[in-house]
Amino acid sequence: MRRRFLFVRNRKAATGLVILGIYVLFAIIGPWVAPYDPSARGNDLVQGPSSAHWFGTTHLGQDIFSQILVGTRSVIYVGFLAGLIATTLSVLIGVTAGYLGGKTDDALSVLSNVILVIPAIPLMIIITSILENASDTLIALVIGLTSWSWNARVLRAQTLSLRRRDYVEASRASGEKTWRIVIFELLPNLTAVIASGFVGTVIFAVLSEITLAFIGITSNDGWNWGTVLFWAQGQQALGQHAWWWFVPAGLAIALLGTALSLINFGIDEFVSPRLRSAGTTKLKTASGGTVRMRIGFTPVLSAPREGK
Amino acid sequence: MDPILEIRHLDVDYGLGDRAVRAVRDVSLTLHRGEVLGLAGESGSGKSTLAYGLTRLLAPPGVISGGQVIYHPASGEPYDVLSLSDNGLRQFRWAETAIVFQGAMNSLNPVHKISTQLTDVLKAHEPSMSEHTRQARAREMLKLVGISPDRMDAYPHQLSGGMRQRVMIGMALILQPQVVIMDEPTTALDVVMQRQILGQLIELRERLGFSVIFITHDLSLLVEFSNRIAIMYGGRIVEEAPAATLYRDALHPYSKGLLSSFPALRGPRRELAGIPGSPPDLAAMPAGCSFHPRCPRAFEPCSVTIPVLGRPDATGRTVACWLHPSADAADSPGVSVASGEH
Amino acid sequence: MRYFLQRIAFYLFTAFAAITLNFFIPRLVPGDPVQSLIAKYQGQISTQAIQSLYVLFGLDKKQSLWSQYIDYWKQILHGDLGLSFTFFPAPVSQVIGQALPWTVLLVGITTIVSFFLGTGLGVLAGWRRGSWTDGLLPVTTFFSSVPYFWLGIIAIYLLTGPGSFFPSSGGFDSGLVPAFDQYFIPSAIRHSLLPALTILISSVSGWILSMRNMMVTVASEDYITVAHAKGLSERRVALSYAARNALLPSVSGFALALGFIVGGTLLVEIVFSYPGLGFTLVQALGAKDYPLMQGIFLVLTISVLVANLLADVAYLLLDPRTRKEG
Fold first, then answer.
1. Could you say which of A36, A154, A211, B93 is the most buried, measured as most Cβ atoms within 10 Å of its Cβ?
2. What pLDDT digit, counting tens, does each position of A194-252 carry?
3. Are residues C314 and C171 part of one domain?
4. Alpha carbon of C172 to those of C101, C167, C198, C279, C284: distances in Å?
């Protein structure tokens, strides 16, 4: 419990979680609180931000703020669903390969490496281009199925090293059932790795969905940030100097991505504290500078000897 | 005897400010010219922290929070190693004090040939030396530790564990330092290899005349290979005496415990007994003598007052134990501190 | 050598898997996509192209799946990727042949520059922790979260326009004919600068971060302490001991990350209308030119495999432990 508490106390992770929470909130309430129907045409064509249209309007007079707000749901939905699918696959394949070893491991490792090396975005493009009327769920499925391999590799390596630990060896020797060892001995020790893999995949899935939408592969059931950019690009928003058309969507992606990366930094630093940025302190060294922790040159404090 | 390295009231912490944990407490120790000083104790007693601390090689979050390390060079005035500048410290390292690290497996850089790793020391410390001379010197060192010079171009992974440790010893001696610190130099090796390498090292010491600080948890090795032994417990030195004296007649109950945890090499057989309990938690040291919870002979003052090192007799040996109060009236009787916290 | 042969066997297998995937994906389409394409183009597709479409989608009922597969392999091995109908009557291989050099030069050079620059900065950030380089991290995190193509759009918006040095689209000035002469080459370089910069800024942060973390991990290895104890210069310890070892996982990561990077760079080409594979791909996508899309996928995959092989050679040269098994 205390360890978990410490994770949230990590400043990076906490910031990331708060931002992510706001996005999830918008994903839920977005369509209800949006000031306009994102597809409804209006009379103000390609207008800059105003009190009526916070993020301006499109060539059809649609409200861009509403498009972004409504589009959040699709982005979060696809990101999390794809992340969930990819994480489940990577745990199944990575842990199985690492734990069972031998021929199973060889086969599964080759499979993950093949998927890893094949360029993911082009693969998604040729798959989704063939599907007519893809729904968000289907797009999430395609992204999930093509992006599990990196985490599977990481999990396999982790499982391999865990399997050699004493307590796992002991459980095996005492005839414990394989599934019990995996669930009670291995998985709890893989939590951080799985979590950071999940977060990483969500980032990748969000970027992939937006990329696909940007080149015109999008679900028919509504808006996402990529669709906004698709129309901005298609309608020469740049030529019309309509910066409000593409800047908000990009910043929304960047902020979400940054939040997710911060969570991952938090997890990484939680797992290996060495990665933390070394802060300077108020204490003084013998030479009068502030103490900087340095490998190879242990700091010498000039603090007075206490109590003697 | 001439001192060569004097450690004075050294304190080493892990962490800063409130979170600091003191791993070495007020340690004073002197290494004399030409001697082998053994440093023994269980893991966590602070013996390695002491060795890395005095050369400022302790990894973060280690900090040196007090004390001095006075080095007496072969010629010139003595100076405090801890107050050297970065560049001064770089020049001091290896040229004056070299270290043979524990675990030779990871002490060599896996991507460079051993010749490169031998000669880069020379490049750093004697920049005027020609490449040809450097190579010749590296070859000579390998020969000295019993490795054929045609292994110069080998990579660390191509050598056995024993050979790697010999390379490390050769590397330590390449600048002819005055002091060699050996931190568990042979723990990763089998017993035969251990004695072979240590024997060789002692022989080299007689030939080249350097002094050695030999750190190990294996007291039997120290009894055999060192002149004087200091025993550490809970970050402090609890007893210090000539090796033979300590072996024959250890005063501190902890030293006795350590001695009885290995079989006698010669002489009458003793009962083998380990020390019950485990080393103290540095973050929560017991009050009084830190050994008293495990001590079979603890009595009333032990849990209250920390004993200081004193001389129990006129031989010059020292011990910090209430069973053997200082015979020297000039020594203060002890520090009335309820606990060792800082 | 054994290690190397293993890698080559793996790449051959991956190429085989990609080709097989390419064969099956069109066959999973429900209904009759050819009819809908014919309807869409309203008779503008030649009968020859229609025939090749039927073969592509496996709607050629005269053949079994297996013999279709064998025929497909025969075609591939002859370098025949079918006919493009956006660029009719050009064969796919010819369309790709024109686009490929642009992508290879732009993406190839930029990726290598990005790797070296990012690795260099990562060495600094990992070694001098607590200094200004720590400030790099939030910036790089932000840039790695932005889609490459969006950064391209912003670059076009901010840096191009009338009178700007940077052209906003294309691979060379219109009116020039591709040739290795003093007019074409400078024009091509000028057109590639902004796309290259976009890719560089987007991809460099990943290298900085991974190298920094590797440096931090390596810095606590015993041999680094030994290097300090030997009194070597800071430079020598940082570069020859720490960075040299931290580089190894970075190089193998380079190979694996290529598949991801290529995806992002394709989109940059689209934004800049750069005449490479990505731009061609989006044109093919708009026209539902399946043979061209598939051809591009295949060529991209094989290019990534070749790049992987090169990274393996680099790894082999850098790590004496893999070289050992002669």
1. B93
2. 888 898 899 889 988 888 888 888 776 678 888 888 888 887 777 788 888 888 888 99
3. yes
4. 14, 9, 18, 14, 21
Query: Is the torsion defined by CA of C284, C285, C289, C292 positive or negative?
Result: positive
Judge contact between C305 and C14, C-beta under 8 A.
Answer: yes
DSSP A197: H
Q: Rg of chain A over CA atoms, in angstroms?
A: 25
How many domains, in total, are found in chain C?
2
Which of B63, B66, B337 lies closest to A299 in CB terms? B63
Cα distance from C249 to chain B (closest Cα, Å)?
13
Q: Which domain holds residue C206?
A: 92-325
Q: Quick one: C132 and C246 in the same domain?
A: yes
The confidence score (pLDDT) of residue A132 equals: 67
Sequence spans of domains, chain A: 3-294
Tokens of A286: 């013998």
d(CA C105, CA C191): 12
Tokens, residue B289 = 């003598």
Residue bearing tokens 């003697």: A308
Backbone dihedral region for residue B277 (phi beyond 0: left; psi -120 to 50: alpha; all else: beta) = left
Residues C7 and C156 in one domain: no
Integer CA distances (angstroms), C64 to A249, C68, C73, in order: 49, 6, 15
- CA C144 – CA A44 distance, rounded (Å): 35
The one-letter amino acid at A241: H
Which 3 state secondary structure label does DSSP give C138? helix
CATH number at residue C247: 1.10.3720.10
Residue that has been written with the tokens 């590639």 in this structure: C192
Residue C83 in any domain: the answer is no
Query: For the CA atoms of B159, B161, B166, B167, what is the dihedral angle to 10 degrees?
Result: 40
One domain for residues C44 and C128: no
Give residue C77's pLDDT.
86
Q: What is the ipTM of this complex?
A: 0.86
Where among C53, C77, C101 does a domain terminate? C77
Least confident of A85-99, C32-46, C207-221, C249-263: C32-46
Burial tier of C142 (Cβ tally within 10 Å: 0-12, 13-18, 19+)? middle
Q: Is the pLDDT score of A26 beyond 50?
A: yes
For the cut 80, the answer to whether the pLDDT of residue B310 exceeds it is: yes
Q: Is C197 inside a domain boundary? A: yes
Q: Which chains, if any, share at least 3 CB pairs under 8 A with chain B? A: A, C
Domain B3-96+177-331 has CATH 3.40.50.300: yes
pLDDT, one tens digit per residue, over C43-80 is 666 777 777 777 777 666 667 778 888 888 888 888 87
* Pair C135, C256 in one domain: yes
Please name the residue that has the structure tokens 């976009």: C198
Q: Which residue has the tokens 């929470």?
A: A21
Scanning every residue of chain C, which has its alpha carbon at the shortest distance from the alpha carbon of B60? C220
Which residues of chain C neighbour B107 with C-beta distances below 8 Å?
A: 222-223, 226
pLDDT band at B337 (very low <50, low <70, confident <90, very high): very low
One domain, residues C176 and C245 = yes
More confident of the two residues B328 and A266: A266
- Find which of B94, B109, B116 to mutate to test the C interface (most C CBs within 10 Å of its CB): B109
The three-state (H, E, C) secondary structure of C62-104, written as one string: CCCHHHHHHHHHHHHHCCCCCECCCCCCCEHHHHHHHHHHHHH
Indicate whether C279 and C318 sit together in one domain: yes
Q: How far is B59 from chain A (nearest CA, A)?
A: 5
Instruction: Mark which of C19, C52, C77 sits at the end of a domain.
Output: C77
Q: Which phi and psi (to 5°) does residue A63 adopt? A: -85, 115
Question: What CATH class has A3-294?
Answer: mainly alpha
Per-domain residue ranges of chain B: 3-96+177-331
CA distance B55 to B81: 7
